[in-house]
Amino acid sequence: MTDGNMLLMLGTGALWAVHLTFMGRAILRPQRGPASRIAWVVVMFALPVLGMVAYLLLGETSIGRRREERARKAMERLQDRVGIPEVGGACFQPDTDSGYQHLFRVGHSVNGFRPVGGNHCQLFTDSNQTIEALVADIDAATDHVHLIFYIWLPDNNGLKVADALRRAAARGVACRAMADALGSRLMLRSRHWREMGAAGVRTAMALPIGNPLWRAVRG
Length: 219
Hints:
CLS_N, about 60% helix, single chain, transmembrane helix, 11 helices, 3-stranded parallel sheet, mainly alpha, membrane, Endonuclease, Chain A
């Protein structure tokens, strides 16, 4: 066997090893649906090199090493509060309907937290009803309002929430609003976001994107 053939065999073997590693990663990645697993395996099997490059760019979501470390520490602090008597006591034991318990089990499997009593939840089938109820709760608030949005648009419903926050801040309610840098980019770039800050609403941008190349270097 010539040196060229030997190098070709070694290169082919290394490529297949990397290929199988990528496919195994796609299959074993936690919190991924079966359809997504199968789709990535098919793509990488049909287009080995392009499939692996696509998986590197799109296959897994990463917020960066520094943010992951901050999130890990925050989760540890939250987990520690489970042992505090006023949090873990009988008055905070959940009283959930049997028809919804499977949903709470799914949530626990994702984030490690179990439901806590003392909370109230109402399900709506219409987005307009949801916004109207949210605005009503903000208008009724007397102490604080904390809101987190992934998608917050400066449209009719989105501006109703923004106006309600400004009204609440004007009457002395502590208001905090956080919106995702990508999903809420239109709101974040609008004058309405600046007006909320000027009215006394404490605003924050979640996961700012910035320069992706520089973020990859910094982690």
